[in-house]
Specification:
Elements (H helix, E strand, L loop, with lengths): L11 H33 L4 H16 L2 H22 L10 H26 L3 H9 L4 H31 L11 H12 L2 H31 L7
Helix pairs in contact: 1-2, 1-4, 1-7, 2-4, 3-4, 4-6, 5-6, 6-8, 7-8
Amino acid sequence: MELLGFGAGGWGWSFLSGLLVTVEVAILALPLGLFFGLMIALGRRSKSRLVRAASVGYANAFQAIPELLTIFAIYHGCSQLIQFLMSELNIQTSWTVPGVAAGSFALSLVFAAYSSEIWLGALAGIGRGQYEAAISLGLPGIASLRIVILPQAFRLALPGLGNLWIILLKDTALVSLISVSDFMREVNLAVAATHRYFVLYLFACLGYILLTKISEFALERLSLRTSRHLVRTV
């Protein structure tokens, strides 16, 4: 179909570019979300009541706040904060936070809140003997966490984190509302220009299904790789 083609009058290149931006936003959000989520999970296991309370409060807050509101708050709030600070220095600027950066960071904060629950369950699923073994080896706290605990926790957490990744991919469509030229925004622009609602939105559905299936395949391979040492040969 000419509408979806890469020639004159086609939107193919725009859709491809938008699809790459969608993946970019998700990939940028993932490592931050994983790291923050792990820190929150460790905080919830802390001996300090204050740290535990702060960790639980963070998780509850970002699970309750709509993702779109978080994106708007980060994008507009940070932009206004920077402009205010610049004005205090007598520097006039209309600079705004890049949409990709703001959207990725906002989604990472939400991802962290949900991934902390998965990390918490994974850490609880590791036998006490593993912690005692790390101590008996004389490993300091951070080293024992990195060498002994985290590899096992990641394997246990992978199925849940994989599901969150799929959700994250779909949530990236929200960044189109802060003028990020992701896949959903490009589809909406094409719809506004051509009024081919059914065809283009059906195509958008297929695009996200494709991303999901590719992700499921990659996650399955990663799961096999992280669990291959558990397979016994007869």
